[in-house]
Target: Exodeoxyribonuclease III
Amino acid sequence: MPQIVLLYGLGRGPGVGGVAPRYRARVLTVTSVNVNGLRAAAKKGFVEWLAGTEADVLCLQEVRAEPQQLPAEVREPDGWHVVHAPAAAKGRAGVSLYTRREPDRVQIGFGSAEFDASGRYVEADLPGVTVASLYLPSGEVGTERQDEKVRFMGEFLAYLKALRERSAADGRQVVVCGDWNIAHQQADLKNWRGNQKNSGFLPEEREWLGRVLDPDDGGYVDVVRALHPDVEGPYTWWSYRGRAFENDSGWRIDLAVATPGLAGRAVKAFVERAASYDERWSDHAPVTTVFDM
Model:
């Protein structure tokens, strides 16, 4: 069974000790980013970015640390309720959720015997909406890593369908944000021709993501693509090698995938791309979606 957990920062959250609530009832802003190691990111600009974000919910992936290893300003920052879901394998994966409002329920994992301790999924219930942070395995063709990715995808699609159905029965919406490690279409990566045999753009991976987004199957909507249907990208990950960032030779693999009712309320979606290479604190950029609730 998925794990129900305690939260960090409950004593100093919104509305407590004179701290004014920042959760806005009619607008929900959700930001997601793969931090590529939260301890490293904290030293390179994440702390300053966190202090300035207008997000109501923040989904982190690839945290790669136990909570006690994190500096206090990112482990339990003022004004946030935080749940960290580290991987059992030290120094790998790890996801976190930061919410301005105390969640009604928090769950780690999705009922998978193989993956619930792998630091790849955490979800929280807020009024009317379930928000989740996902770090889907990256894979590597011809290795056990790719087999693991395929197993994860099979289990996770079944869970996504059940979550959508359960939430609909409860009158709730869902948004799953994170590093999906799959570029769905040619418009989602610059060098698609050279990556057709590489993990992240394999036909079977793209077909699987298509099932997630099929109204008659998974039933979810890619919010950024729905708002920006005819553009290249916007890319969310660039290799540190070469001049990938300067040339905007990237991949769009960080997605906000929502149930149709919530996706229909999206009014804005954008990638917070750093102004320069030197200002990056991760090889990914934050992806922000704004919903009129």
The CA atoms of residues 142 and 162 lie 31 Å apart. Residues 3-292 form a domain with the Deoxyribonuclease I; Chain A fold (CATH 3.60.10.10). The longest strand covers residues 27-34.
